[in-house]
């Protein structure tokens, strides 16, 4: 779990967010929060023999829509 979280956590932290390793539904997992403390995503891991078999995620669709809006070209903007 530590290596998997280590791969994705820097993306969240770079944006000012935090990663909270937790047990969720009795299984290892994590809560990813943005800089305002709002939940971006939760992960629950299925582990067998010390290896991650499946990662179940629930993402905040409002955050995904905000990211898409921020990446879209803005009217009247210039890339000069």
How are the SSEs ordered, and which strands pair?
Blueprint: H1 2-14, E1 18-24, E2 27-33, E3 39-48, E4 51-59, H2 61-71
Antiparallel strand pairs: 1-2, 2-3, 3-4
Quickly describe the structure:
The protein is α+β, with helices and mostly antiparallel strands and 80 residues long. Helices cover 30% and strands 41% of the residues.
Question: What does this 3D model show about the protein?
Answer:
- This protein has 80 residues and is an alpha+beta fold.
- It has one domain (2-62).
- Helices cover 30% and strands 41% of the residues.
- The chain is built from two helices and four strands; from the N terminus they run H-E-E-E-E-H.
- Strand 3 and strand 4 (51-59) form a beta hairpin.
- The longest helix has 13 residues, at 2-14.
> Quick one: biggest sheet?
4 strands, antiparallel
Number of strands: 4
Low-pLDDT windows of residues: none
User: What series of H and E elements makes up the topology?
Assistant: HEEEEH
Mean pLDDT: 78
Helix content: 25-40%
Kindly provide the radius of gyration, computed on alpha-carbon positions and rounded to a whole number of angstroms. 16 Å
- Globally, the shape reads globular
- The number of helical segments is 2
Q: Classify the secondary structure makeup into a structural class.
A: alpha+beta
Structure keywords:
80 residues; alpha+beta; four-stranded antiparallel beta sheet; 4 strands
């Amino acid at each position: 779990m530590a290596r998997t979280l280590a791969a994705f956590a820097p993306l969240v932290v770079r944006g000012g967010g935090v990663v909270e390793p937790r047990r969720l539904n009795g299984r290892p997992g994590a809560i990813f929060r943005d800089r305002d403390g709002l939940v971006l995503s939760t992960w629950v891991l299925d582990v067998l023999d010390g290896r991650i078999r499946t990662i179940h995620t629930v993402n905040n669709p409002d955050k995904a829509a905000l990211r898409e809006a921020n990446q879209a070209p803005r009217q009247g903007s210039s890339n000069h």
